[in-house]
From TrEMBL:
Protein name per Swiss-Prot or TrEMBL: VWA domain-containing protein
TerD domain sequence ranges: 8-169
Gene3D superfamilies, alphabetized: sav2460 like domains
Pfam family, one: vWA-TerF-like
Stretches for region Disordered: 176-206
Residue ranges occupied by any vWA found in TerF C terminus domain in the UniProt entry: 262-458
Organism whose genome encodes this protein: Anaeromassilibacillus senegalensis
Length: 461
């Protein structure tokens, strides 16, 4: 079974063996949570209200979407026959919402599970710690990709509840429309949305994004932000959008901003990665990770390691060399592969080398460890993770364009660790995930680990 992280995507055919499946949603909370499905067109809008499926409209016209009770108490299931949906339905967005003034922060736990028959093939879990004032969330989406569909773990919130969701998808809630008849043990039903295009001149209210960020972050982080923004000129101006997304995400995780974290990238440079380096995808990874790293600590640089059969630390990534780092540093990636013996990837050796350098620093270190799979030794990686759980080192594994990730897909099964010191994010392509979603995932995982190591006094000598 695959455990999804926020922003992670995967083929439905690969997960479920076809286009017929079930999604089960479960929530535990001291409040009433309603789950619904919005069938959207190519523009992401609810252009046909018959494809808004909820507890008072439980089936789409052709039967491609059917809502019924789930196996667990309080759970709901959607039976999907995606190949039966009409061509104008390009995406299914599954949402949860609450009435009144309470928020999703009260959610004890929640998850969506994908089923192929009776077999659970994947799960995306979330809880109230990921939300603040939101009264509605988009849990996940299914969208067309050629002759396939893909699952996307979204986890994005809206402060305005169901009304905000309807308006986000291009509909309106008619206030004068009488409520539909209620059913036992359910609150009154909100009227169906009617598709419409929101006014482009709608005024915005509240403080600007920049004001929100500045008010949320410590003074020294704002000074760092200003310094980085001033350096994004000329050859590095392209980093501006990455920093904007990173700062906006960091404002939602102020606990991370309180403590400097050194971020180290360790990249697979075995032969199977050649095309990803050659077509520039690995350079984009370095760009994104560099913006993440330099936002979290003052030195405007990021240590970078690469590994094949051997591992080696290369020159730090800086504002002066980031633009073409993978093509120019130490002769470029082809030279790296030659130096490191590109014939296979030895993750344990790279992990041990990193541990020797950073393990004694007694400060938080996050290792962004990128691999395309087919790991050399599951049991050695497991052993290293157990040993390093006593140190303030967090291993964020990123699987890129690969397969057979072994123990990385079963990290939760590793016993004997003092801290939950590792997570795994699987991607087909770095462009499959937005910058905002990537940074949200990384910060969410880092935030939980920082809380744990402080509580367990792991930072103390």
């Amino acid at each position: 079974m695959l455990d999804f992280l926020r922003g992670q995507k995967e083929s439905i055919r690969r997960l479920c063996g076809g286009l017929e499946l079930e999604l089960e949603f479960y929530h535990k909370a001291p409040l009433e949570i309603d789950v619904g499905c919005f069938g959207l067109d190519d523009a992401g809008k609810l252009s046909d209200e018959r494809y808004f499926i909820f507890y008072n409209q439980t089936q789409s016209p052709e039967g491609g979407i059917l809502l019924h009770r789930g196996a667990a108490t309080g759970a709901v299931r959607f039976h999907l026959r995606l190949d039966q949906l009409p061509p104008h339905i390009a995406k299914l967005s599954f949402t949860a919402s609450i009435d009144g003034t309470r928020t999703m922060q009260e959610l004890t736990k929640g998850h969506v599970c994908l089923f192929r028959g009776q077999e659970e093939t994947a799960r995306y879990s979330y809880d109230g710690s990921q939300f603040r004032a939101e009264r509605a969330i988009v849990i996940c989406e299914l969208y067309r990709k050629g002759d396939d569909w893909r699952f996307n773990a979204v986890g994005r919130g809206f402060n305005g509840g169901l009304k905000a969701l309807v308006e986000h998808f291009g509909g309106t809630v008619a206030e004068s429309t009488p409520a539909a008849p209620s059913i036992p043990n359910r609150p009154p039903v909100s009227p169906l949305p009617r598709a419409s295009v929101p006014s482009p001149n709608r005024p915005t209210t509240g403080p600007s994004l920049v004001q929100n960020i500045v008010s949320s972050l410590p003074t020294h982080v704002c000074a760092r932000m200003d310094n980085l923004a001033r350096q994004c000129r000329g050859d590095t101006e392209y980093l501006t959008s990455l920093y904007k997304n990173m700062f906006a995400c960091l404002a939602s995780h102020p606990e991370v901003a309180e403590m400097p974290v050194q971020v180290v990238t360790c990249a697979d440079a075995s032969g199977s990665m050649f095309d990803l380096y050659r077509n520039g995808r690995m350079q984009r990874v370095v760009d994104k990770f560099f913006a993440f790293a330099t936002t979290l600590s003052d030195p405007c640089s990021m240590d970078l390691w690469a590994f094949g059969a051997k591992s080696r630390q290369f020159g730090a990534v800086t504002m002066d060399n980031v633009r073409d780092y993978t093509f120019a540093e130490a002769g470029g990636f082809e030279r790296w592969m030659s130096m490191l013996n590109y014939q296979y990837n030895n993750e344990p050796e790279a992990m041990r080398d990193i541990m020797m350098i950073y393990g004694a620093l007694r400060k938080p270190v996050m290792v962004l460890f990128l691999t395309d799979g087919r790991l050399s030794s599951d049991w050695e990686i497991e052993e290293i993770l157990i040993k390093t759980s006593r140190f303030p080192i967090y291993w964020q594994f990123v699987g890129l364009h690969g397969e057979e990730y072994g123990i990385l897909e079963r990290l939760q099964e590793i016993d004997g660790r003092r801290s939950d010191n590792a997570a795994f994010l699987k991607l087909d392509d770095i462009d499959d995930i937005s910058d905002n979603t990537l940074y949200e995932n990384l910060l969410h995982n880092l935030e939980g680990w920082l809380r744990e190591i402080q509580y367990k006094h792991i930072l103390e000598p």
